[in-house]
Write a structure and sequence with these properties.
The complex is a heterodimer of chains A (309) and B (666). Chain A is mainly α and 309 residues long. Chain A is built from 11 helices and 4 strands; from the N terminus they run H-H-H-H-E-E-E-H-H-H-H-E-H-H-H. Chain A has one domain. Chain B folds into 3 domains: 36 residues; 246 residues, no CATH class; 187 residues, P-loop containing nucleotide triphosphate hydrolases (Rossmann fold). In chain B, the strands form 4 sheets. Chain B has a 6-stranded mixed beta sheet with strand order 10-11-12-7-13-14, with helices on both faces. The chains are: A mainly alpha (309), B alpha/beta (666).
């Protein structure tokens, strides 16, 4: 492979990873924007979403990579899997908010963050104890279509991942910018107290943020399985940290920022593992996290978060 | 039954508090020392030694999370640093070729010369007892290194950065094979020796070392907690802005917590590796950091005895209870022929239990099993209804210090985005005067205070105090120079007592550092005793309003009393100029009058005061000069009488129509 082709190949890989991280980063950003809370449970909502996708695909009779579908059956299966995964993940997110975070809404200090760590641990271990520690082969009914671009290869699954991710992000962007609830959400992020006085049902806005964020994380989990052909109980931690870095890099609380950050982190991971060493990828990414937080806490696109003290 | 308990507990209740604590500590010490003698089972003693090692980790994290309120999710990284430092310096991992350079080290028994066919090499053999303090220092150094850039961040960002850092350290360890032997781990780590006898693999000597470490770190934790340093940590935890305004250097104080917490972990790392005689990167990952956090949360954040209890419970849970419980279930399953019960293995669910502990403790018992602050009983009826003694300002040393050049603000402008909060404002406060700033809401009064005390940067203009340019200085430095303030919306350290709040006010005037706090030399003892006397004297300015409530948590006080505590806290810093932001807000007329008289008393002592106040009778009573702000501009200045007749002022306060009517009526 020539250097140019290598670069192209890693760009393709990076954009796919980036799409996944962006979907995951959006959940961090939505919740942080409103509650100023780093939601560690989100790490494993993503992981659970991946398993929900797995079980949904299996329930439709798919296992491994043996069954190949085309045309309408493929579309039907994929849309069903996506919808079920997103709804279940979204409901899980809402349940987490209602049961463990709402009672702590007005408690100062790190209590809520510690709770999300606990919830994350619970999800992680429930999956470990029920599904087992071995990684699971992920059903993938996509036909093995590929396009050669020089020596680089573009696969159908990558194109589909991009289409799904862009469609979801576009939908989210329109929802936040155009809809009434989206406006309420932006108002709450600015100032929950003032929004409440203007008749915004803050509790409802928070529930929506958790639902939407968790549903997107679920979609990310499904994409993870389709991209890597496996899933496991451990995938949440690393992916979650990278996605959180993406959210911070783009400017936490900022929706387009999370998308941009996701793509950048995806590209860094792909390029880093090609041109540096996969073993150091996380060191590079965490170093970026620290550097951004220290030198540009507002991120690439964000404004400086108002200090509500 | 309850009567029996009540009857039994009566003699215990009769023992004074301090004595009861001493007895409890003595009993615990004897129990800990006697345990291996009474229970001669190597596996159990080993488990107990591990529990003690985790207790030291929990004590260290408690300083960071419990005392200073900094959520550190990568704490195990410091554990790893201490562990690998000892592991590398006592194993056969790194063996440079022998040269004359190593001779002196060999003489000190730090290295030995190994004969090898390819040329002699150096084998590090640094003593465990040397490495304990060295690892502590090394970990503290890394604590400062990683803390310095990140501690400025908001608390939640700090959590994620420490998490990232906690991930980086094991990855680096895994990827630097030559130094750490990578994922395979360090082997052949030397066991500690004492008087020429190796500890070997017997659990007993490790148990006693671990117990000694726990005892030492409990002692250090308690000494630090009850000192100027501990109070500064708790002030930062309760309200960072107020802590800075009360003279606490935020970065320095946080770094100290980080470094001391890291030192505890580094020391424990050395112990742990010496005990296991091996070290792998997996021993120091995120799950370990979380486990230590669970111990702290379970026991009670900030509670020294609590976190030790938390660590012991979790370790016993892991090494004994879950195993026993699983076995009982297996027996039960065999008895009733249930296959599922026979296979259950609860030890695998230990992390699930950790997660549940975190969630349930946060939801239902945030203070932990042994809360750090004991609730002082409320005052009894008589105390609450005691006749109010007015008190008054006594000529305390350092109060009413007027040998300074006063405050001089020239052309200060502050902009928030497009909004001009202050526009070229001038203000002079001569020594020993009382100047009042008045103006409608949003006119920039509090912004002016924030600029003077360094909380808000000014865009342009100069501020001089006592002849020196003070603009751009950090808040704690301004307090040190004698500028103290109160806040419009009261910013006390809510979970601390009245006494602690006033003591924190003295932070900049006291000198006890961490070492003196632990060792308590006579000078430090004297300083602390004097500080307490002084705090009592300051509180007595408010008569018997606060004096009987010294030990009460301030969040339980009435609004007026909280205002008084805040003023007392500012006075404790021996201010040369006192900035009071609406001191009588929320007080009834009688209380307002009382406080006005007390402020007057301070003024009579010579204290310079800058005052924001809405109640014009208070202003008239106290102020030598009144400055009126409106929309960020100074619209009038003069004696209270002059200002009251100023047309612009009337317009600003009452609107044009009213002014016209007022003029017509006249």
């Amino acid at each position: 492979m020539t250097f140019g082709d290598l670069l192209l190949q890693q760009t393709i890989n990076g954009l796919s990873l980036g799409a996944m991280y962006a979907l995951l980063a959006l959940g961090f950003t939505l919740v942080y924007g409103i509650l100023e809370l780093i939601n560690f449970a989100h790490f494993n909502v993503f992981m659970v979403g991946s398993f929900v996708g797995l079980w949904t695909l299996q329930a439709m009779g798919l296992s491994g990579q043996s069954v190949i579908l085309t045309g309408l059956p493929l579309l039907g299966v994929m849309l069903t899997a996506l919808a079920v995964t997103m709804v279940v993940s979204g409901v899980l997110g809402v349940a987490i908010e209602r049961l463990s975070l709402r009672p702590l809404r007005n408690v100062r200090g790190p209590a809520a963050m510690i709770t999300t760590i606990g919830v994350s641990y619970v999800l992680f271990n429930i999956v470990l104890l029920t599904a087992g520690a071995d990684s699971k082969n992920y059903p993938n009914p996509l036909p093995p279509l590929t396009w050669a671009l020089g020596d680089a290869v573009l696969r159908l699954r990558e194109v589909l991942i991009w289409i799904v991710a862009v469609a979801l992000m576009l939908a989210l962007h329109l929802f936040v910018q155009r809809s009434r609830l989206g406006k309420a959400m932006r108002a709450t992020a600015q100032d929950p107290e003032a929004a409440r006085m203007m008749g915004v049902e803050v509790d409802r806005v928070i529930v929506i943020a958790f639902f939407v964020g968790s549903a997107l994380a679920g979609a990310g989990g499904l994409i993870f399985g389709l991209y890597y052909n496996f899933t496991s109980f451990i995938i949440g931690f690393t992916a979650g940290l990278r996605a959180f870095t993406a959210a911070v890099l783009g400017g936490i609380g900022n929706v387009p920022g999370a998308m941009l950050g996701g793509v950048i982190i995806g590209l860094i991971e792909a390029m880093g593992s090609q041109f540096i060493a996969a073993a150091w990828t996380d060191v590079i990414i965490f170093s970026i996290l620290v550097l951004v937080l220290v030198f540009r806490p507002a991120g690439l696109l964000g404004r400086v978060a108002p200090n509500r003290s | 039954m309850t009567r029996a308990i009540a009857l039994l507990s009566r003699p215990i209740a009769a023992i004074p508090d301090a004595r009861r604590r001493q007895i409890l500590i003595a009993v615990l010490t004897v129990a800990a020392l006697a345990f291996p003698l009474l229970h001669d089972n190597d596996a159990d003693i080993d488990a107990a030694a591990n529990a003690a090692a985790y207790a030291t980790l929990a004590l260290g994290l408690n300083i960071v999370v419990g005392f200073a309120g900094l959520l550190d999710l990568g704490y195990a990284a410091f554990f790893a640093i201490g562990a690998y430092a000892y592991g590398i310096l006592t194993s056969f991992q790194v063996m440079p070729p022998w040269s004359a350079f190593w001779e002196p080290f060999a003489f000190l028994y730090l290295v030995e010369r190994l004969q090898q066919p390819g040329g002699d090499v150096v084998h590090f053999t640094v003593s465990f007892w040397i490495m304990l303090p060295v690892s502590a220092l090394l970990a503290a150094f890394f604590g400062v290194l990683f803390g310095a850039p990140t501690l400025r961040l908001r608390g939640d960002y700090l959590a994620i950065v420490t998490l990232g850092f906690g991930e980086i350290v094991p990855i680096v360890v895994r990827n630097t094979d030559w130094l750490t032997n990578g994922a395979a781990g360090l082997n052949g780590v030397q066991a500690p020796r004492l008087f020429g006898v190796s500890f070997g693999v017997d659990a007993l000597p490790y148990y006693y070392v671990a117990i000694a470490m726990v005892a030492l770190l409990i002692f250090v934790s308690i000494r630090l907690r009850d000192s100027r340093i501990g109070r500064a940590w708790m002030a930062i935890r309760e309200d960072e802005t107020a802590a800075m305004a009360m003279g606490i250097d935020r970065t320095r104080t946080k770094l100290m917590a980080f470094a001391i917490g890291a030192a505890f972990a580094g020391m424990t790392g050395t112990f742990y590796v010496a005990k296991l005689q091996t070290a792998t990167p997996e021993m120091f990952g995120f799950p370990v950091s979380v486990m230590i956090l669970v111990m702290v949360v379970l026991g009670g954040m900030g509670s020294v005895w609590g976190v030790v209890l938390g660590a012991v419970i979790l370790q016993l849970l892991q090494s004994w209870w879950l195993k026993d419980l699983s076995e009982w279930l297996h027996t039960l399953g065999a008895a009733i022929g249930n296959a599922w019960l026979q296979q259950i293995d609860l030890t695998r669910a230990v992390e699930l239990i950790f997660g549940l502990i975190l969630v349930f403790m946060m939801l239902y018992r945030r203070d932990g099993l042994i809360p750090a602050t004991r609730k002082e009983p409320a005052l009894n009826f008589e105390q609450q209804h005691a006749e109010v003694r007015r008190g008054g300002a006594l000529p305390l040393a350092g109060l009413g210090n007027s040998d300074h050049g006063g405050l001089d603000v020239r052309g200060v402008t502050v902009r928030f985005g497009g909004l001009v909060a202050l526009n070229a404002v001038d203000l002079t406060v001569p020594p020993s005067s009382v100047v009042a700033v008045i103006g409608p809401n949003g006119s920039g009064k509090s912004t002016l205070f924030n600029v003077i005390t360094g909380l808000t940067p000014a865009e342009s203009g100069v501020i001089h105090f006592d002849g020196a340019d003070i603009q751009g200085l950090p808040p704690h430095e301004l307090l040190r120079r004698g500028i103290a303030r109160t806040f419009q919306n009261i910013r006390l350290f809510n979970n601390l007592s009245v006494l602690d709040n006033v003591l924190i006010g003295q932070h900049a005037r006291l000198t006890t550092g961490p070492l003196a706090a632990v060792l308590r030399p006579p000078a430090a003892r004297q300083e602390e005793a004097d500080a307490r006397i002084r705090a009592t004297e300051i509180v007595s300015i408010f008569g018997n309003r606060l004096l009987p409530r010294l030990a009460q948590t301030v969040s339980h006080l009435s609004y007026a009393n909280r205002r008084r505590v805040e003023i007392g806290r500012a006075l404790a810093s021996q201010p040369r100029i006192l900035l009071l932001d609406e001191p009588t807000a929320g007080m009834n007329p009688a209380e307002t009058l009382e406080l006005a008289e007390q402020i007057k008393g301070l003024h009579d002592l010579g204290l310079t005061i800058l005052l924001i106040e809405h109640k014009l009778d208070v202003v008239t009573r106290l102020a030598d000069k009144v400055v009126v702000l409106d929309h960020g501009e100074k619209i009038a200045e003069g004696t209270p009488d002059e200002v009251r007749r100023n047309e612009q002022v009337l317009t600003a306060y009452l609107g044009r129509g009213t002014l016209a009517k007022a003029t017509a009526d006249a």
